[in-house]
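Chain entry —
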Amino acid sequence: MDYTTFKTAMLTCVKDQLGEEVSIRLQEIPKNNGGFQDGMAIMGAGSNLEPVIYLEPYYQAFEEGRTLKELGQLLVTEWKENRIDEKGPVGVFEDFRKAFSSICYQLVNFQKNRDLLARTPHREFLDLALIYYYRTEHPFCNSARILIRREHMENWGVTEKILYEAAAKNTQKLLPHHFLSIGQVIAGLSGDEEIGSLADECRDDEGMYVLTNEEKYLGAVCIFYPEVLKRIADTFGSSFFVLPSSIHECIIVPETGEDFEADLQELVRDVNRVYVSEEEFLSDHVYYYDRKGRSLWWGKKSVMI
């Protein structure tokens, strides 16, 4: 069964289980950097919000051998656990006082997400933007997100500043930063002896480090965690360059006095073209953290961190 047929079959399966009192439809959800992701929007009787459940993980499970009936039951269970009531996470999401502790932020490219940013509260930094989401759970991945839109902010009666303050506190608490050498990252990829030997070689003279969060998912935002860049600079005893590897992590390269920024710029662009998917792309630009000024620079723009 191809993906298009699977979506229609899942829609029928879920409708059969939930009955006519529930409104169900397939919906395309905007993805990072453009494009769309397929979801199923389900609105229960008496509700004015539609939790959207993404279908790609279900199709992957289908290809791995799960039956359509089984997946339909799992999707219905997920919806019931997240439906609009006082007990479910989305019900909590309707009340800002209850949602406050689960509001986080992530980094996206500003230019590539102009349409999305027009509909969402955000904060611009350099060529990037922070957007906000409500963090909840998902059966097929570590976490799921409800993107916070302008209508949510208006319904809550809060400002972008309040969202920022909540996210700055919560994201660092829920997703602590991890700062690793390239050798440590390689060593963690596999227990393979050959890879382990490569990691040992990298540890001595790698000069490159990875900054991400403990889930290694949406971890590039760690560059905006309070004090993190300052502590890294103090550890190096110098300023450093930040290479936006993807929305999930950044590469940190200490400044040595050599003029290799142009080489780093070329490296970022090459890696983005060859290894980074469009949806995970963050930026083609290299940033510079000035230890003395405690600021992150891109060209003539800077931001205090």
Summary: Confidence is low (pLDDT under 50) at residues 190-205. The first strand starts at residue 23 and ends at 30. DSSP finds twelve helices and 14 strands in the chain. Residues 3-18 form the longest helix (16 residues).
